[in-house]
Target: Pseudouridine synthase
Amino acid sequence: MRLDRFLSETTPLTRSLAKRALKNGEVTLNGEPIKQAATQVDTENDEVKLNGERLALVGLRYVMMHKPVDVECTARRGLYPRVIDIIDLPKVERLQPVGRLDVDTTGLLLLTDDGQWSHRVTSPRHRCAKVYIAELAEPMEGEAAQQAIEQVAEGILLEGEETPTQPATLRFITPQQAELTITEGRYHQVKRMFAALGNHVNALHRRSIGDVLLPDDLAPGEWRELTPEEIASF
Model:
């Protein structure tokens, strides 16, 4: 790897600032000052220091967060804080949400800089189950609830779509609180499914993705890195 790229990968420096640091004599390679940006670095064996501090490449990261309301899953700064603004990790801007949550939706959010792993989680082909808890505007019970359960199990044709949703599982915890398990990730899917059933979602919370469950002791806004077992479960 080129030395200037190594610096930009391991520090907040851009490539141009990395070249400036090299010209200023701030960088050493195996104890020797180096000024040539194109110098090749053995990332496994060479020792690179910036102003005396040893640098190391950031490996792949896998993070879970209990996303609170009024936090966005976007990379661009907007009206609300971003999830990556909450996470204290080097090069946090490289982390990408593994399936977004709306700004008003809470619950389990996974983030990673491992694109292949992210694809395994989100690809419809892998049918990864996602469990949501929906607070409904109108109660559904009796025959209406049973019809809704059957419609969801068969698949619902959402407005503007050409194919129905994949079979899903609906369970009513109370007449106005429902647990919905889906294996897709269509745009605003849960809210649109309940709208197709003649209801409205007042609040939405994602409880789990695959075998990874949001821990009870992870408060809104808190995060932690996934365990090796959780990473391997996808």
